[in-house]
Amino acid sequence: MDSYILNVATQIIIQAIAAYGLNVIVGNAGQISLGHAAFVGIGAYSAAMLTTAAGFTFWQSLPISVIIVAAVGLLCGLPSLRVREDFLAITTIGINFIVVAIFQYTPALGGALGIGGIPRARFFGTVLKAPGYFALCLAFLVLAMAVCRFFTCSWSGLSCFAVREEETAASSMGVSPVRAKLTAFVLGTALAGLSGVLYAHYMRFISADSFTFPFSVTLLSIVVAGGLGTFWGPLVGAVILGILPEVFRPLVNYRMFLYAMLLLLMIRFMPGGILGGSTMMSLKNLTAGRKGPKGGAKVE
């Protein structure tokens, strides 16, 4: 494969893994998250510190980094138990800014200069260069998709769907909203951490600027464009939003404006996304609520 195409394809796969994690939180559990890039950054920084400062290998740092991000995700998921909708969105945005500030102003994490010299991944002693690393990322994408499929069909996934549609009714039927929300945050952030680890070892240099709020908007755009709550949506969205910036490279300085316009157009004309149907959750339902005129649940 041409090196340019290979580079774009690898980054699309890495973003798709993070998007699948966000889809678990937003699409399956119905919890608005606008700070997902922070967890990608935590995974990347954890892997970078473990491999450069502690001397760990890629395969040793990978599970440790994912566990660290999942633990942070569990703590950051606690606000979802007390705040909802717009307030939860503001909270997650704040988490993103706090994490980026820690990256930028902590000398042990490289400060504003970031962390360089991240070693390449090895597979049975062989250094994985571009084609090999692409195959590795593709394998992890398949694994992430399999995990999401299993989660969707499991009792935990069904509990998340119930809480997403009507939390009070789900609770009255014996479903624990606390367990459902925290499970979604742990799984979603763990996938974001996996994406961060792969990104760090692919770029071999990371800085706080790579995980700011605009990247969170990019991930949300991917999920919304593909279809909230759908299985193939994050992959389709990652491919579309990964290719479009390359096609319209002269407009790269207006990327965030175009993403914002895309979100607004999707909410207005295709609230279920490209793959979302009438039975799928839409961003409009997520943000507008589903209460009827007398406070009862609206039947759609």
Automatic annotation (TrEMBL):
Location within or outside the cell: Cell membrane
Transmembrane spans: 12-30, 37-56, 62-81, 93-118, 130-151, 182-202, 222-244, 256-276
Domain of life, source organism: Bacteria
Keywords: Cell membrane, Membrane, Transmembrane, Transmembrane helix
Main location, first listed in the record: membrane
GO MF assignments: branched-chain amino acid transmembrane transporter activity
Record's keyword annotation contains Transmembrane helix: yes
Membrane recorded as keyword: yes
Listed GO CC annotations: plasma membrane
Membrane topology summary: Multi-pass membrane protein
Protein name (database record): ABC transporter permease
